[in-house]
Design brief:
Layout lengths: L1 H13 L2 H26 L9 E6 L6 E6 L5 E5 L6 E5 L6 E4 L4 E12 L4 E6 L6 E5 L8 H4 L5 E7 L10 E2 L3 E6 L7 H16 L6 E6 L3 H6 L1 H7 L5 E2 L6 E9 L19 H11 L21 E6 L9 H11 L2 E6 L4 H9 L3 E5 L15 E6 L5 H14 L3 E6 L16 H4 L1 H5 L3 H9 L8 H16 L1
Parallel strand pairs: 7-9, 10-14, 11-12, 11-14, 12-13, 15-16, 15-17, 17-18, 18-19
Antiparallel strand pairs: 1-2, 3-4, 5-6, 6-7, 6-14, 8-9
Helix pairs in contact: 8-14
Length: 474
């Protein structure tokens, strides 16, 4: 301490305050020049420092951090203490991208992904510079339908720090991608089976060419048995009932939720590498269907070749009450008539539908089996009483165009509805169906979908079948 005081005293005596200040500025400038010279000499040997660009991916309120390593050199490491495997994830790949669209929501992510079925949570491990984020998702492709969403388990997608958040330990590692989707919602209704699940699953999983595992939430064993052939064609692996899994499953690529387009029973080829033509060819392969194109009639057939007409029967509501009369009339026009009900034996239904050139039925889920009709076949939708025009158009008329089918519509008169046996002629159910629609979906459904059958006026319907014959000649 004494030596330091002596040094300071001598220094102060040797220079004035002004000289001390000049000396200090000179020392600072000298150090600056020295540093500048160092950088100039060694610049060729210095690599670029990794720059971390942070951006927010936002879609309808979604805020999830995406990390991009602009130098391509930053690595994030996560130790998997439950196995000998150490996962090293490039920040370039760690981009949880969640999409909210008109009819669906889904997240695609790559990296260190851990799935805990017990808590219905997907964890994506990230670096310590990333803030924790959570996104809630129902993995069923009918967003906005509150009734359907009530039956779909909600999942969390958590973007978490590797060391700062309670990440579950990996207990089972997988080498292929995973897709998590729900069999809740309206699963079991044939129309919704295809428009909400089968077509979206095809659209989401086809890119993997079978190298993907399906993780089912809201498991529905009946549905799985019904579509087992489709599931096995899209994935080479056994299904995982993720809700019942005790183990934490780890993947490097996961999609939760399914992709779909707003229109029913459709794929937009301008926004996808696939189309409904591709999907129908896929079904042809799945069920080994034989007929590619509907019969093309010739004027000189002389009755030797007869087009096959399928009449879809129903056991409950919206059933034809005079199927035999319809079949006899169709036979007189030159059709070979087949009557069948669309049940859960998809392979059998697909075979029957594919063997026919014309299919007719009352508006309902059974008409969805038009996906199995051969190209240029004809779909006839019988529209019951109740102001079904919008439903008839969106559910079957518009989708039929994308399937390369011809479409005909037959709207019944009040006298052809069995509702005339249940309500007086002046009742608004018969006189003003739109007044019933204004009372809400459930009132409309309880009357026009659940209480109504159709007694088809065969003479009035005959020109529709005749028109179908004309189209088969074209």
């Amino acid at each position: 301490m004494g030596e330091k005081m002596m040094y300071d005293t001598i220094f102060a005596r040797s220079f004035s305050r002004y000289d001390q200040k000049k000396l200090g500025y000179g020392a600072f400038l000298g150090c600056l020049l020295l540093a500048l010279s160092f950088c100039t000499v060694f610049k060729p040997y210095l690599g670029p420092l990794p720059v971390l660009n942070m951006r927010l991916s936002m879609d309808a309120g979604l805020k999830m951090l995406s990390i991009v390593d602009s130098a391509g050199s930053l690595k994030l490491k996560a130790n998997d203490t439950s196995s000998s495997m150490r996962i090293i994830v490039s920040a370039e790949k760690m981009k949880p991208i969640c999409n909210t669209e008109e009819r669906t929501e889904f997240c695609e992510m790559n990296g260190d992904i851990r799935i805990d079925g017990k808590s219905s949570t997907v964890f994506l491990a990230a670096g310590s510079l990333v803030e924790n984020s959570t996104w809630m998702i129902r993995p069923y492709a009918r967003k906005g339908d509150e009734e359907a969403e009530k039956r779909v388990k909600k999942w969390s997608v958590k973007l978490s720090e590797v060391d700062g958040y309670a990440l579950p330990q990996c207990q089972q590692n997988h080498k292929v991608a995973a897709i998590i989707f729900s069999l809740g919602g309206y699963a079991g209704n044939n129309f919704h089976d295809y428009t909400d699940i089968v077509i979206p699953l095809y659209l989401t999983s086809r890119q993997f060419d079978g190298e993907v595992k399906f993780l089912i939430t809201n498991k529905n064993s009946w549905w799985i048995n019904k579509f087992r052939n489709v599931l096995q064609k899209l994935s080479r692996y056994e299904l995982i009932d993720i809700d019942e899994e005790e183990n934490v499953h780890c993947f490097t690529s996961v999609i939760i939720g399914l992709k779909r387009y707003p229109k029913e029973l459709s794929i937009d080829p301008s926004k996808s590498p696939y189309s409904m033509k591709d999907f129908r060819q896929f079904l042809t392969s799945v069920y080994s269907l034989k007929q590619e194109t509907a019969i093309k009639m010739r004027d000189d057939d002389n009755g030797e070749r007869k087009p096959r007409l399928l009449i879809l029967s129903r056991k409950t509501s919206r059933a034809f009450t005079n199927v035999n009369d319809i079949a006899r009339m169709a036979t007189t026009l030159g059709y070979k008539v087949v009557v069948a009900e669309a049940n859960s034996n998809v392979a059998r239904v697909a075979e029957i539908v594919n063997s026919c050139d014309v299919m007719m039925g009352v508006h309902g889920a059974g008409l969805t089996n038009m996906v199995f009709l051969p190209d240029n076949a004809i779909l006839i939708q019988v529209v019951p009483l109740g102001g079904f025009a919008w439903l008839a158009r969106t559910d079957f008329e518009e989708p039929s165009k994308d399937m390369n089918l011809r479409y005909l519509k037959y709207e019944i008169k009040t006298q052809e509805s069995t509702l005339i046996q249940q309500y007086p002629a002046e009742h608004e159910v018969l006189a003003n169906p739109y007044a019933i629609q204004e009372q809400g979906w459930y009132v409309f459904k309880s009357v026009y979908l659940q209480k109504q059958n159709v007694n088809l006026d065969v003479n009035r319907f005959r020109p529709t079948l005749a028109r179908a014959l004309e189209l088969l000649h074209q």
